[in-house]
Amino acid sequence: MNYTKNCLLPWSYMLIHAGGLMQTCPCASDIEIGDFLLDYIEKRDENPDIFNRESLQMVRKGLLTGNLRKMCRDCAYNTAELITTDELKQKVIQLLQSVRKDYQYQEGDDLTKQYAYTTIGVGFSNRCNLRCLYCNQSVCADTNPFYKAEFPYEYARIALEYFVNRGVKGIIPSVEGEITIYPHWYELYSEFHRNHPEISLAITTNLNREYSDEEIELLARHNILDVSCDSLDPEVYSKIRVNGRLDLLLKNLTKIKAKKEELHIQNTVITIHIVVCNLSWESLEEVSEYAFENGFGLNIGNYEERANARGYREHLLCPISQMSGEVQEKVSKILNRIRKRAEELGLDERHFVCHGDIIERLNKQVDRNYHRFEPVENICYQQFYKENPKGSEVSFLDIVYDDNNIAYTGIHFREKTPVVLNGLANIKRVVVREVLVYKEGKHSPKFDQRTAPGYRRVVTIEDGTLEVIPQGFTEDIDSILVTIEPLREKDE
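^ that's the sequence the OP posted. Answer follows.
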């Protein structure tokens, strides 16, 4: 058993960009999943199964074993919570059985080859009318063909029908571009909504163009309308969302709200989407109050650093996690007040969304809780957790991955500081191994990797006490993870 991310997306969600590129989730993919245009549209007479490619199976296997790929380890989109691989396996089985009524799990079933896709994110255009600081559009839009790609109209219609025939329950757009500037967006989505009203339509939009009355009505009829707005201060808004007009956004929101009331449109949700960073955090409460007072929901995004974004390249933006402890504490209090207000208003998970457990991550950081997980099996880690309930800057429970995505769970040492574990009277011997993490730019001479697992050694426990002192520190070593496993009787 290992620890893994609490994520079902590779079994339930697919993201398709306008150029055809497929991803398992909104995070940057570190493996090629395929090209929808080439692998399905051009071969649709062959009826290929794009949802079960070998690369997808590899991502699923990483989650099921805890040997996470880098894309999963660096995820800022999904929950930060770690669960055991056994727990994730049960969640996958429950998903399959709840969505696919014909599926019954049999012991030994290969869950990497099973899926139940419920939601598709598809971008029929990668073009955008803004150049937001945290988006790749800010650097690449005028030079990279990826950001000029668009689906031909007929291909877009074929794609939507393909998803319906595969049992998908919801369609959302890719956020690499602005869907409402796609030349055929109104015809495409209005026709689809008429033909398939049972399919949930969601959209994330900057609302920064003039819309016809028909377009306003279509936006009002979307099941979820997610509107990007990082501040109600025009100066801050325009600084983050380059080329954006706050007055135009608010005017369009007013029209959409009025249209919903005029046509008595029910069971649809409008949310205001704010990405939390150094420029936007002071706007959080004002934006949330505006949303709640107007009957809108709130969607709080976790700022993700991208190398091809101006905000990152020019050091204009940074995530809250990199800011001072004083600012982190302020933001933590603000976010918790907003969440409490949402709870008082009775907002459900559609009306109040926090990507990546941003509140929990920040609370943990402010509380100086360094542990990555709470141990459920290993008595040595349980004892360390009991004696050090929050860990410290120099030693804490953590997971380290090598260059082959193999996970190692143990006590992470930032310095050569001893840790004493008591209360181990029922254990005679343990197996200890040091996993060396080399400094940036340095590599293990043996493995030519930044992370190098050492040899296992057996240590005898005296009087129920074990002292752990990492031995491998040199000038090239950044930190050391020490794994400790009780020696089983059959291995004696």
